Amino acid sequence: VKKIGVLTSGGDAQGMNAAVRAIVRMAIYRNCECFLIYDGYNGLIAGSSKIIKAKREDVSGFLTLGGTAIGTARCMEFREYEGRQKAALNIIKSGINALVVIGGDGSLTGADTLRSEWPSHVKDLLKDGKISESDAQTYTSLMIVGIVGSIDNDLTTTDITIGAHSALTRICEAIDALQSTAFSHHRAFVVEVMGRNCGWLALASAICTGADYVFIPEDPPRGEDWETRMCEALQNSRKAGKRTSMIIVAEGACDSNLNPIKVEYIKEILTQRLQYDTRVTILGHVQRGGSPNFRDRYIGTIQGAEAVEAILRADASTPSLIIGTLENKITAQPLKSAIIFTQQLAKEIKNKNFENAIKLRSPTFKK
Ligand code: ATP
């Protein structure tokens, strides 16, 4: 019998609950057992009080809930070998032989590390007398399946990550609201949206709201004096009759020397050089809060169901998998491909190879 543990980890994202619900229900439907692991990797390290066998009704009403109902955490202990060994012991004690992790790239990297170390954890636990010989023979491998829950849409193994649609919807609503007050007073607004290494939310919201200027980490303003070019673009648009100026800044935006571009700095330029009545709005956590939209409920549900199917198809030679949706088709690809992509992108930005960063990112933008 497959015994599937499910946890959510890292930042919460709307639609994670839909995935958890689908995993529990699909697991039960397919005669598996399912365990809810509360508070991310902290729960896996804490053990039995946080690893609870799930019944169908335990996930009733989950579809419409924002955040993650089983809790999430950033767990420093899981970053260390010893912490992961405690998690391995609790996994074996609970009888779990497959784990679904719903989180961002950090959470998925942690899960992949646990899997690659699994034989040595089992060996150490046996040597220390923490598990029996028969346990060591039963738990020879741990299947890992990842689902990307992240409002940033920052992985290419899926067209869209769970939570990104709801966050984008919320940003558009907020910017629409700002547009009406900006229009009344001829104001400029500089709006900071989430996205540390990924400008998808900023770029997509700029497209959807018709913003005048956007700053994203992958494509910093090039060359000297980008400030003057920005001012000219805004002035031209005012000359053409526009009453407002809307500038969207990803929280991780930087210039081509990797100096952060902050909303207050943009405000200063617009106020001093153009004498625009300029306001700053940092949207913050409203972007990830609240009920998921239909799309996140939908992809959370189909990806959760597919995670269970992928576990049932897997054998010991199957690599850790990541579930995604590419060109409207559900996919299960090696988890490593997602992790390598994230590491490569961070490296390209750090080395100021922005052309490469855009090329890497472009499949996500294109689709
Ligand atoms: P978000 O995109 O919202 O930031 P994330 O999953 O990337 O989500 P992180 O804070 O990077 O968020 O990771 C969540 C947790 O996953 C960490 O607190 C840690 O427990 C585990 N984790 C992250 N990176 C690693 C790693 N390299 N090795 C082991 N565990 C890790």
What does this structure look like?
- This is 6-phosphofructokinase.
- It comes from Smittium megazygosporum.
- Belongs to the phosphofructokinase type A (PFKA) family. ATP-dependent PFK group I subfamily. Eukaryotic two domain clade "E" sub-subfamily.
- It is found in: Cytoplasm.
- The protein is of the alpha/beta class and about 375 residues long.
- Helices cover about 45% and strands about 15% of the residues.
- The chain has twelve helices and eleven strands.
- The chain has helices spanning about 15-30, 40-45, 80-95, 105-125, 135-140, 165-185, 200-210, 225-240, 265-275, 295-315, 335-350, 355-365; strands at about 5-10, 35, 50-55, 100-105, 145-150, 190-195, 215, 245-250, 280, 320-325, 330-335.
- Strands 3-2-1-4-5-10-11 form a seven-stranded mixed β-sheet, sandwiched between helices. Strands 7-8-6-9 form a four-stranded parallel β-sheet, sandwiched between helices.
- Strand 10 and strand 11 form a beta hairpin.
- Helix 11 packs across helix 12 (about 355-365).
- The protein is elongated.
- The mean pLDDT is about 95.
- Adenosine-5'-triphosphate binds near residues 41, 75, 104 and 107.
Brief digest:
The chain is an alpha/beta fold. It contains twelve helices and eleven strands.
Q: Major β-sheet, in short?
A: 7 strands, mixed
Radius of gyration: 23 Å
Distance between the termini: 39 Å
Chemical compounds bound to the protein: adenosine-5'-triphosphate
Structural class: alpha/beta
| Rounded average pLDDT | 93
How do the helices and strands follow one another from N- to C-terminus? EHEHEHEHHEHEHEHEHEHEEHH
Number of strands: 11
Oligomeric state of this protein = single chain
Q: Would you identify the regions where 5 or more consecutive residues have pLDDT less than 50?
A: none
User: What spatial order of strands do you see in the largest sheet?
Assistant: 3-2-1-4-5-10-11
Choose one word for the global shape: elongated
